[in-house]
Amino acid sequence: MARRVLPYRCPQCGKIHDYPVYEGVDVTKEPQFRAKVMDASIFDFVCPHCGSVNGVIYPFLYHDPARRFMVQLVDSTMPEDPFTDLFTTDDASEQAIRSVVEDMKTRYALRTVTTPNELMEKIAIFEAELDDRVLEIMKQGILAADDSGKILDLLFAPTENGPAFLVEEEVGFTKAIPLDMTLYENLSRDAEQFADETETRINAEWAKRHITHSLSN
């Protein structure tokens, strides 16, 4: 696993320390790091001065070659598709890099996310061999039917009762809505109507755009 050191000021005591961060992980080579990603502890900074634990978000790449997906945690201000940086070399032309990335997209699911929760969700989705585009469309349907207006977000996750959407409200995650596999399969058959393989940031905004586009056609 590639590592680098960042200076970090503890928000509790104000002391500045060097914080070693992991730039990415290939879970086929280092499977022990999957658990640290899935509980977000890989982003914890433990201050050596006061002992406080703080979550520190930084660019991170999760790579699962066996399941053929990569998920990048990036800053929300970054370009939509930062994967070109992974293949950039001093002697590579822009066209060559673009060709490599486009070839990767035919063989891999490449995604960018902006929060650890999104990172964990994408990993869970691809490990379950599901289509995140279809799930984002399904989320919008659930939100549209929410008369209470209490749902802040929905997060896909495996549960002891099967795959489900965890419901986040102001008080936290309150319940799980089982994944309607019949609806999922029906939407999957029509996925080409809203699928765009060139996009890597598949989220609520993506789903809203594609629903609007589908309704206008």
What structural class is derived from the secondary structure elements? Answer: alpha+beta
Biggest sheet architecture: 4 strands, mixed
Low-confidence stretches: none
This entry's quaternary arrangement is: single chain
Helical coverage, percent range? 25-40%
What does the average pLDDT come to? 86
The strand count comes to 11
Key features?
217 residues, globular, four-stranded mixed beta sheet, alpha+beta, three-stranded antiparallel beta sheet
Structure description:
This protein is 31% helix and 28% strand. The protein contains six helices and eleven strands. A four-stranded mixed β-sheet has the order 3-6-7-8, with helices on both faces. Helix 4 (132-144) crosses helix 5 (181-189) and helix 4 (132-144) packs across helix 6 (204-216). It starts with a strand and ends with a helix. The mean pLDDT is 86.
Question: How is this fold's topology laid out?
Answer:
Elements: E1 3-9, E2 16-22, E3 24-26, H1 33-38, E4 44-46, E5 53-55, E6 60-64, E7 69-73, H2 94-107, E8 109-113, H3 116-127, H4 132-144, E9 153-159, E10 162-169, E11 172-178, H5 181-189, H6 204-216
Parallel strand pairs: 3-6, 7-8
Antiparallel strand pairs: 1-2, 4-5, 6-7, 9-10, 10-11
Helix pairs in contact: 4-5, 4-6
How would you sum up this structure in a few lines?
The protein is 31% helix and 28% strand.
